[in-house]
């Protein structure tokens, strides 16, 4: 094999290039001192007898970079534009700009456009160093240029403002200015320089941004400091000024004489040299003559004198100004004005057409102006004395002339030349421009350039001269059909695409192409001459492909031809490779290369007898001296495809799934997807053809049915045929919302607020999954359209476990009751089924009308108008229409006296909206209320309205009586009219002696008028023996009829009383006076009696006039008080009936649960305290909640509390009110609203496991009346101990995915659902599917647990048997020991059954009940007789009464009238309402449920089994004021003679503690005077207590009973000796220890300890514990009378 190396044209004749072979089969090329000409593509060629192979290497030689920035220094004026150009030797280099070392961001004013930097709107921040940096690979170069700022006139940045102040405070005036060069600032006051003193200081300092800041500070202002201040900023570019007044209050003050120089022919402003403010008038004189006569002199309003054109000598002299104020104060100041003539320069100019090397001069002459004069020359604003261009001379001819001479002119002499002349008057300038014409010369001359194709190219062409030469680029163009001699140059923009000339003259080509190659000329010209340079630009092209075949398809065994077309600089070398391997060595491959027209090279590769191994990607590689490039062609050799593999599901849906697979090699042109249902055969399969290009993204298989099992397989297809089918893929589509609505929707009204809705499920083939429930929607017909016009339904969820259902699963009829509707309203009802994916379509609406109900609102706007003294008219408006709840049939009216003393309520009824009430009393307030009614009942009352009748004539005064009070004197007294007719304003008493004529004169008749509060009057000096007396009452309306009597005047005065008997009401605690006005001679004896007994002096006081004062009257002071007077002539007496009013007694309250959201509270009022009840206040709260109060009408005896929480316990008590005050709090009633804890659904409805996840459906849980508010999901493997929480929220999510599970693994899923009624936890177990999605195999082949080993199991079983035998023996011994002698069926059996077995059975039953989560009610029943069925199950509601045991109420609420409440039995239970809504089948019993029974023999025969109940309103109300609810057991126990002495006590707020009640003892039981167990037993059970076995309300809550008289009660007193509860069982009284025990239930300290609950016993235990154990007594009679009781559950 030989190896040699070479470049294009070989290596011959090239020095410093050596090729040698260090070993056989290798070659090395060495280039020494590489130059740019060494840049080539070098090829290494190896050949032997079997073939030839080549490899090319491209060598690139890089040269150093060179950067040039033009100009290197640039001066720009403010606001002008500065441009820098950067030229780089390598056009491919990357250019970056920097300003003072920081990168330039090309935006806004500063723009980096390619290799140009443009700064627009130059400001003071822009001067500095600008740097151009070029980088190419590892090479870098840079050059900097400076930007300087030109002259700019001053600009004021801060100006002081005008001020008006009082003398004294300091003042600071400030000006700041900027400019280039930095300006100077001068200050003047009224046009004169400011003199600096110790008070006035002028300062100046340099601020930021090259600004100068100047200020005038006056430390203590005076009047003379006022005036017009002006600051003037000046530099060589110009000046600017600002002026404002500083006004200082004060009288006019003259300034010192000042001198002012005026410039001739210019305007002069003279400020009045007088300070002060305010100044009213000004007067100017010149040399004593007023200036008003000269029109060229004008005095302005501020006192400024303006001379329009100053003339000399007319305007020179002394000017005097007199300034005056309005009060007449004035001052005078003077100014000396001298006039100076400014210089005037005779114009001059430079001659035109001056070129380099020539000479020139100009003369600056001043033809006018005061001496001395100074002349100075400047070039471009810079004094030539500071330096300038060479060969410049300034010669002074005389004091008024100067010559500027320049020899050998150059471009540097061009510019603006200024002659400046100044004297004491002014400085003037004259400027002329000099232009020296300079021919163009190259700064950067272009040269021949080479560039690679596709790269950017910049060719610099920069020339200088004066005027500035213009640069243009042109390209040489050969015209078609003509010889080269006719070539022409044209602008590059016209002949070369993407070639442009930059503003700095450079040629820029963004992307070089071969057509950019050619000859270019750069032409620079100005008005002097021009020059040009011609260059050649060569674009070197690396190979690039113009076209080629992307792929070639052939059958196996055929000839395959592959082709690629390439262009590039010759010579080109083209090679072929397959998968990176050269093809030179194979004879099956033939390569040909030929050059086509236009220089395109065509390379072809032929493959003979193509096989599958020849298939693949072929690479065509072309290279030349400037690079290499490749092109690929795919060769596809086709044959029938193989079966696809790896068929799998990518994503699944309800009606389509997406599958993917691994494509066979070679990939087919298309695929056929076959799918069928799992129960069908392939003959029924459907096919879907897809392109072979969709393999990567997968293929969608559709249409499918939701929730259906399918089998999918795949067949590959190409033009040669089909492949065998792939393996079967089994899958199940996802569920979907139901596709059809429920069927046969019907609705019927079952009440005013509820309807019954029934329907049938959707067809099975349209259910699309397991139906979890239904959404039942309803809406009033009038409100069914919202803003969008679509019905707005109120939806409720019907779970699969709710509602009635009949018929086979999936085909039966559902029936649900919908409540809380509006009465008498048309509703549209719809139903939609839902599954795990959502809800299906709505059913067609069904229309139903609810029944009528009582109105829900009261009449509105009740108004009352008095018509007369006995009638009023009331009117009202009907309730809101939505509260009618039916057709209003009319209105009911109730009215009564407002004071409430009249218990009679009058009623009326009308169909109109107004009514007239008649038969009323005059001038009386009436309480009127109105309600409406429908056919279903009455609505609520409207709030009471006060009506007042008009006043009337009063009635006849009552009990008019006259008594003789002395000789010729009598006293007449009377009682107020029974019908006063209004307020009595006066009484008129008219008397006349019988037989006397009218006008009989004094002593015969008379009239006396007294106030309306007086009820007696004395008449003296009567002349006659028989007197007729009339008394008339008067109101504002007039006089009423008279009351008459006759008085016989006698000489004796018998004892008589002129006060009247009456009834008196008084509030407790007030003093009550009972008057007893009397007469008699001799003085009568007076005596008071109370209830027939003489009145003692204690607590009472007899007044001097005989009246009796009852001090601080109490309730026991009520009764009849009689006053008796007696003397020898007669006697008299009167009687007062006194009623002392007190606050009412506490009502008797009971509460029953009505629904999930309401509670019905009923009460009965006992003693009203002597005054009518004015109203009630109900207090209620939830456990641990705040108290809420409701005010109720005085005539009400029940109230429904609404808006309560479901399944919650509430405490209720009531307070009654009358005119005196409020009662104490009633006993606490405790009730629980309906509703239970959530119920778990079956596992098949709640979750669906998969291989690596489980899908949970939270909505499957049953709410059971109380909505689920919170749900927690946790899971773990069965072998793991730690739970993993995956969700904590509400059940609103339709599904929750729990991922990350292991296939074929057993898991536990714990769910906790929380509602207002409580929480419920349930644990499910499941096993994930296998990886293939199948059910996991049985646990076959697993190793048996170690504990199942015979070596472990046999000893364990032996130990268990031995232990069981030992326990059985011990139990037998204990039982024998505790049984009494005699055994058998006597008392011994009963005792053992009741103590040992009964307790164990109760524990087991309770445990069993909790485990089964069933709802039971406990009742105490008598043991049946022998001939009765012992296992009888209650058959009706009367047999099951829920309140067998009770719970202590919470401490009384924080009410000021709080009274401790003492409970009866208490059994604390933590059992929630777990089974709310479940009903145990009547007559059924749990398999493990037992009755605790005992047998007993009784001498008294069988006890009566009758039942008696005391209902609300019965005659059993007693002074205890308690409320009882009697159970069946208590009624049965009443009839048992042996324990009738057993009385159970209860104590409430109105109860008085019985006295002298000894504890029951063994001695007491034998006391003959108090025989035990002889009285009737009654259990007074508080109605508000809870059942210990169920939180449900009693099914017989209407049975409300009250305690009978003389009943004692049972109470647990606390712990006695030995830790047992002491039970008080006295026959008639309660022991002293009762109060200590009772305090425990009223929030007082617990005698059992701070952490101990009160002792609790059930009713059965209370009855049992009261009886002494029979084995302790030898009294056979006693033992024979003991009856056993069983608890039926």
Explain this structure to me?
The chain is mostly beta strands and 1689 residues long. It is built from 9 helices and 120 strands. Strands 7-14-13-9-10 form a 5-stranded mixed beta sheet, with no helix packed on it. Strand 66 and strand 67 form a beta hairpin.
Short description:
The protein has 1689 residues and is mainly beta. The protein has 9 helices and 120 strands.
Record keyword descriptors for this entry:
single chain; 1689 residues; mainly beta; 5-stranded mixed sheet; 9 helices; 120 strands; 42% strand
List the helices and strands and how they pair.
Elements: E1 2-6, E2 17-20, E3 28-31, E4 41-48, E5 51-58, E6 67-70, E7 73-76, E8 82-88, E9 94-99, E10 102-103, E11 110-113, E12 116-119, E13 128-136, E14 139-149, E15 152-158, E16 163-165, E17 171-180, E18 184-189, E19 192-193, E20 200-206, E21 211-218, E22 227-235, E23 238-248, E24 250-254, E25 258-263, E26 268-270, E27 274-277, E28 281-286, E29 289-290, E30 297-299, E31 305-307, E32 317-324, E33 330-340, E34 344-346, E35 360-368, E36 374-379, E37 382-383, E38 392-398, E39 401-406, E40 415-422, E41 427-434, E42 438-444, E43 449-452, E44 457-459, E45 462-466, E46 470-477, E47 488-491, H1 492-495, E48 499-501, E49 507-509, E50 518-525, E51 530-540, E52 544-548, E53 551-555, E54 560-567, E55 573-578, E56 581-582, E57 589-595, E58 601-607, E59 616-624, E60 627-638, E61 645-652, E62 657-662, E63 670-677, E64 686-691, E65 699-701, E66 709-718, E67 721-722, E68 729-732, E69 743-749, E70 755-760, E71 773-780, E72 794-799, E73 804-806, E74 813-818, E75 826-835, E76 838-839, E77 846-849, E78 860-868, E79 871-877, ...
Parallel strand pairs: 7-14, 16-23, 25-33, 43-51, 53-60, 94-102
Antiparallel strand pairs: 1-4, 2-3, 4-5, 6-8, 8-12, 9-10, 9-13, 11-12, 13-14, 15-17, 17-21, 18-19, 18-22, 20-21, 22-23, 24-27, 26-31, 28-29, 28-32, 30-31, 32-33, 34-35, 35-39, 36-37, 36-40, 38-39, 40-41, 42-45, 44-49, 46-47, 46-50, 48-49, 50-51, 52-54, 54-58, 55-56, 55-59, 57-58, 59-60, 61-62, ...
